[in-house]
Amino acid sequence: MAPAAAGERSLKETPTWAVAIACAVFILISIIIEQAIHALGKWFQKRNKKAMLEALEKIKAELMLLGFISLLLTVGTRYLPKICIPEKYGNTMLPCELESKYKEDGGGKDDGKNKGGGGDGGDDNDRRRKLLEFAETMIWRRVLAPSGGDSSACSEGKVPLISPSGMHQLHIFIFVLAVFHVVYSVITMALAQAKMKKWKAWESETSSLEYQFTNDPSRFRFIRQTSFIKRHSGFSTMPGIRWIVAFFRQFFGSVTKVDYLTMRHGFINAHFAPNSKFDFHKYIKRSMEDDFKVVVGISIPLWIFAVVFLVLNVHQWHTFTWLSLAPLVILLVVGTKLELIIMEMAQEMHDRTTVVKGAPVVEPSNKFFWFNRPEWILLLIHFTLFQNAFQMAYFLWTSLEFGFTSCFHENLPLILTRVFLGVALQILCSYITFPLYALITQMGSHMKKAI
């Protein structure tokens, strides 16, 4: 067996009490987490929240998958570094500039200085900085190297497929990604339910005498006199202009009381007897919990996206910059489309009749959605949340592992701007877009199974 590296002790040279304490701490933390998940599941079961219980089971399945990935990475740390590839392939498509160039550049500049008899002070400082960075990197790699060292694993002209330190860093990244996605999903659900508390007050108003008088079935009104048509008519119906109106409306009053009550009345009129006492707010809440089961999961396509991103994250390709705009663009387009659906329902009602009896009635239909599929909007929201969590996890991982002065943060103001946009996007999706989707998606042709 190869000797241990300098400053490193194996378990046979470690006190038994230190090993026992470390194991006890890990076991205790694992038991606490397991008992907390079990208690949360019993709480959901006691409150008859079947959708949230299924979402919790999906989280547990993801944690189990994470455990398998962790185990495979741990085992692979012993074998993957022994796989050697030619150095010319090992030095292609790097996320950062090749560190050996720092050494070569520094040596070349020194030669020029000796030959020329002088040099600029700024160049000297730059050379020293690069040489120090290279030296620190080589020392850090030596500390993380396995007992046998990396140098003996591959012959000259070849490099390991991935180093043991790289395996360790990849291990941490996958863990951070999984944790961020679950935390982001929980934040999304919490903020969405906070937004929907306002709707509960509107639902309670439907039992009041004032609401029943205002929407008396025997009362006739011109359709243009109703509050719903007034809100979604006029200047906002012009082609092109309505997209601009819908875009800004998602930020300011995305769902008003008249929108909620009109869609509630249309939903009940389409699926139940008129004037039914159906609790539309409770139905939306349960429907959103069903959708949360989808949002909290990491599907195979999302894992494929994560792998593709890691492949394309090459130095000077600026892949991260372009992909960071994708979730924001997708979310804004989705929010605009949802607002357009309300406007299109109002326009259809206005074109269908001039007089309304009682409350105005919208007709739910899949034709208002892209390709007649309301569920596709949820897939876009799911992808947006995962991609945002991926980028935030990547930022945190690179900051902790390599520091703010690494090549991953060459343009720190741009990086911080993307982080700010990521936080804003999470709030926008959780507090505006996801609740708006939960309401508008009920305007499809079919009821959800949450009933």
Low-confidence stretches: 1-6, 101-119, 139-152
Provide the number of structural domains.
Answer: 2
Work out the number of β strands: 4
Query: What is the radius of gyration computed over CA atoms, rounded to a whole number of angstroms?
Result: 29 Å
Q: What are the secondary-structure elements, in order, as H or E?
A: HHEHHHEHHEHHHHHHEHH
Shape: elongated
The biggest sheet, with number of strands, parallel, antiparallel or mixed sense and barrel status, is: 2 strands, antiparallel
Average predicted confidence as pLDDT: 77
Q: What is the number of helices?
A: 15
Strand order of the largest sheet: 1-2
- The span between the termini is 65 Å
The share of residues in helices is 55-70%
- The structure class reads mainly alpha
Report strand %: under 5%
Structural features:
transmembrane helix, 15 helices, two-stranded antiparallel ribbon, 2 domains, 451 residues, mainly alpha, disordered N terminus, Mlo, 4 strands
Description of the structure:
May be involved in modulation of pathogen defense and leaf cell death. The chain has 451 residues and is mainly α. The chain folds into two domains: 98-162, no CATH class; 165-443, no CATH class. The protein has 15 helices and four strands. The strands form two sheets. It has a two-stranded antiparallel ribbon with strand order 1-2. It has a two-stranded antiparallel sheet with strand order 3-4. It is elongated.
